[in-house]
Amino acid sequence: MNIVGTTAAPSTSSLAWMPPAVLTALAGSFLSNLTGQFVGTNLADIQGGIGASADEASWISTVFQVASAAGIVVSPPLIRALGLRRYLTWATVVFAACAWVCAIAGALPTILFARALQGFAGGGFGPIAFTAIFMLCKGPRLPFGLAMLAFVLIASVNAGPVLSAPIEAVFGWRGLFVAQFMASVLLLMAALRWMPPSAPIDRVPLKTDWLQFALLSIASGAVFLALGQGTRRFWLDSSVVAWGFSIAIGASVGFAFAWRHAKAPILNIRTLTSRRFGIPIALNLVFRASFATSAYLVPLLLAMNLGYRPLEIAHALWWLLVPQVIGLPLVWRAMQVHDNRVPAIFGLLLVALGTSIAAYSTSVVGAEQLRWSLALIGIGQVFFLVPVLLIGAGSLTPEEGPTASIAFNLTTVMGTVVGTGLVSHFVTEREKYHSSVLVEHITSGAAQQSDRLASLINAWSMRVGDDALATARAVAQIGATVRREAWLLAINEGFALIALVLIVAAVGVAMIGRSPPLPRASEGTPP
Q1: In the 3-class helix/strand/coil scheme, how is 205-274 assigned residue by residue?
Q2: What does the DSSP 8-state code read for residue 10?
Q3: Helix (H, G, I), strand (E, B), or coil: what is residue 144?
Q4: 413 or 22: which leads in pLDDT
Q5: What whole-number distance in Å separates Cα of residue 358 and Cα of residue 373?
């Protein structure tokens, strides 16, 4: 289906004309992405609440991501067999029940089991929204339906830390899961009220090649496991990460063999390698790495510089979220005037500019100094993903729907995980390098540093009245300064790396080919 052509595109002045079922499906996608960020941004408080180590608590996020990959992969046959209403209802019930179990659980194994089930159920929300838009947004509704999907996928990730921090501050870490439960109940009520009735269960789609689905699920999940635990466990030095990569490679080879000899391959390779779909999907994977800015670099910078807590970081990230709401009608207008590649390239360059500005941070930079940088990143993300999604989905046929759904949703989740994992590894290694250089510099300037150390010892001695204790505290103060400066330099280089990658990605947008502007709303078109 070509969404740029004979039908006029609707205005964004109102959502009243959109089918309530589509809004419900989008709400499910928003909920899954939103709650996926709840745990990661408040992991330290959850860890303390259940008495687990940092390494043990990290699995609460990892198992959710691994299970989400499986939920995404197996969703196409389940949606065809069960129907949108039945599948969304069942998945929401499981999601809500698991959230409640996590809220009342007191042991890590119980939470891990519930989070795995919750991740599998939540993994289907994205494909449900993708499918609902194509099924229920016909003609002039389709472009704006896809634009809303792109916006939901961006805003939900950035809204996670913004909303979770005040909830955790008021109700504690268990309140995070209670909030998920309450939101799931509302989603369930909306699904029962507005999703179109499902036909009787069709068992034909279930008679598929489940070996292909199993191998692709294992390969995707193993990649998520390895990337999620890589930096924390020093990558291949850990048997867990090594086994994760080994399983991913083995399952990928097995999937390729099964796909090659299958009578009904689950993925359409021509769709994945086409210029109009393949390049946007690859760009989506690369672009999602930019979310490492808000998910990792900015929180780390504010915590290292000024000791920000999650609630204070959440206040700072409002400057990322609000411009995205403002940017949606602006990018829609731009897509009606220009070749759709123009706003996409403009968006990438805005994000690159915002991260470049952040790359000049100093040890006194706080939330106020990052406002313009975050605003540019936020509005740039909307300007990129909305037109790229419309370009990629514009030529899809119904037969290509399952392939597109799996590819788009996997790259959406995987891009964020890959970006955060690789950027965190890069920053950690660069911190080690800068720390060694700074220590060597301090050592080489022995006379100057001795004077500085003596001055600090005198200052501390006047406070504590003990020379030995004063010396220890002076040395610790210098060491803390060195570590802070090393982390600052490494974080700035992380910002610069993301900016460079996005500038290079802008070339990929140009390679997509001409993408005519969307037709403006004509008389009689729903508002």
Answers
A1: CCCCCHHHHHHHHHHHHHHHHHHHHHCCCCHHHCHHHHHHHHHHHHHHHHHHHHHHCCCCCCCCHHHHHC
A2: P
A3: helix
A4: 22
A5: 6
Q: Please provide the DSSP assignment of 273-329 as one string.
A: HSHHHHHHHHHHHHHHGGGHIIIIIHHHHHHHHH---HHHHHHHHHHHHHHHHHHHH
Closest CA to 374 of 306, 424, 330, 322: 322
Q: Rounded distance, CA 326 to CA 343, Å?
A: 15
What is the rounded CA–CA span in Å between residue 124 and residue 111?
20
Positive or negative, the CA dihedral 257, 260, 262, 268 is positive
- Residue among 455, 502, 462 at smallest CA distance from 478: 455
Task: Tell me how many degrees the CA angle 463-468-471 measures, rounded to the nearest 5.
Answer: 70
Task: Outline where DSSP puts E strands in 140-207.
Answer: none
Angle 225-506-137 from CA coordinates, rounded to 5°: 75
pTM exceeds 0.85: yes
Burial label for 203, CB within 10 Å (0-12, 13-18, 19+), is exposed
Is residue 3 helix, strand or coil?
Answer: coil
Whether the pLDDT of residue 231 is over 70: the answer is yes
Q: What is the pLDDT of residues 133-169, one digit of tens each?
A: 988 887 778 888 999 999 999 999 889 888 998 998 8
Mean pLDDT is lowest, of 199-203, 232-236, 295-299, for: 232-236
∠ CA 135-136-141 to the nearest 5 degrees? 115
Q: What is the DSSP letter of 369?
A: G
> Is residue 355 a contact partner of residue 496, using CB atoms and an 8 Å limit?
yes
**Best CA proximity match to 130, nearest among 148, 156, 116:** 148
Question: What is d(CA 47, CA 42) in angstroms, rounded to the nearest whole number?
Answer: 9
Taking the C-alpha atoms of residue 280 and residue 509, their distance in angstroms, rounded to an integer, is: 8
pLDDT grade for 524, boundaries at 50, 70 and 90: very low
Distance CA 109, CA 83 (A): 33
- Range list of β-strands (E), 400-455: none
The span from the CA of 151 to the CA of 338, in Å, is: 20
Mean pLDDT of 384-392: 92
Asked if 351 contacts 380 with a C-beta cutoff of 8 angstroms, the reply is yes
SS3 366: coil
Other CB atoms within 10 Å distance of the CB of residue 475 = 14
Distance CA 50, CA 44 (A): 10
Q: Are 63 and 116 in contact, with CB atoms under 8 Å apart?
A: yes
Q: How far, in Å, CA of 289 to CA of 203, rounded?
A: 39
Share of the chain above pLDDT 70, in %: 88
- In the DSSP assignment, the letter for residue 518 is P
CB of 491 closer than 8 Å to CB of 351 = no
Length of the chain: 527
